[in-house]
Amino acid sequence: MMRDLFFTMIVPFTICAVAVYGVARRVDVYDALVQGAGKGLETLVRIVPPLVGLLTAVYMLRASGALDLAARCLAPLMERVGLPPELLPLMLVRPISGSAALGVGAELIANYGPDSTLGRTAAVMLGATETTFYTIAVYFGAVGVTRTRYAVPAALCADLTGFLAAAWAVRLCFGVE
Questions:
Q1: Which candidate, 94, 144, 150, 143, places its Cα nearest to that of 122?
Q2: Which of 81, 85, 147, 163 is least buried, going by the fewest C-beta atoms within 10 A?
Q3: How far apart are CA 118 and CA 113, in angstroms?
Q4: Is the distance from CB of 133 to CB of 156 less than 8 angstroms?
Q5: Is the Cβ–Cβ distance between 151 and 140 less than 8 Å?
Q6: CB of 78 within 8 A of CB of 125?
Q7: CA angle, residues 150, 154, 159, in degrees to nearest 5
Q8: First-last CA distance in the chain
Q9: SS in 3 state form for 9-49?
Q10: Phi, psi at residue 141, to the nearest 5°?
């Protein structure tokens, strides 16, 4: 009971504490709030166009069947590396869209089961990797960076490492079925 009350009151208490602290420091709290909200809206306006473009591209790739075609073409390479080819759609979508990756992951888990090697590997891959292009679009777009230089290749290498490490960790911890 007391714990629930604490978690219910933490946000209002924090807001009140910040306001009281600001008043004690002789800050115009309302003006600071309005200025912060304005800067937040400016950031939102800079971020939205890259996000719209990115999400449109993801939906077009999925609807056109290009992701399925890429998955079929790369399946022999996956088997050679020791990854189940069924995970390839997840690996292709994850750097682009988190929601699409969750959909693919949920589909894999529904088809193969949550305790299967595929289900476990999909879950670990979702937790071990990042939505690279979304993150770059948001953070670089927020500060106005147009040339990402080495950020994209480095992030994609990190994603690949996360995919391989996820498969390795599941095999190490749970064995192969």
A1: 94
A2: 147
A3: 8
A4: no
A5: yes
A6: no
A7: 150
A8: 44
A9: HHHHHHHHHHHHHHHHCCCCHHHHHHHHHHHHHHHHHHHHH
A10: -65, -35
Q: Which helix (H) or strand (E) holds 159?
A: helix 151-174
Query: Under 8 Å CB-to-CB from 138, ≥6 apart: which residues?
Result: 47, 50, 51
- Any idea what DSSP says for residue 116? S
- Going residue by residue through the chain, which has 177 residues, state the pLDDT in tens, using 9 for 90 and above: 777 888 888 989 999 999 999 999 999 999 998 999 999 898 888 778 877 877 787 778 778 988 778 878 888 988 888 788 889 888 988 998 887 888 889 989 999 999 999 999 999 999 999 989 888 888 887 788 888 889 889 999 999 999 999 999 999 998 865
Tokens at residue 57, please?
A: 């591209």
| CA–CA separation, 132 and 138 (whole Å) | 10
Amino acid in position 59? Y
For the chain, domain boundaries? 41-174
pLDDT at 172: 92
User: Do 86 and 112 contact (CB within 8 A), yes or no?
Assistant: yes
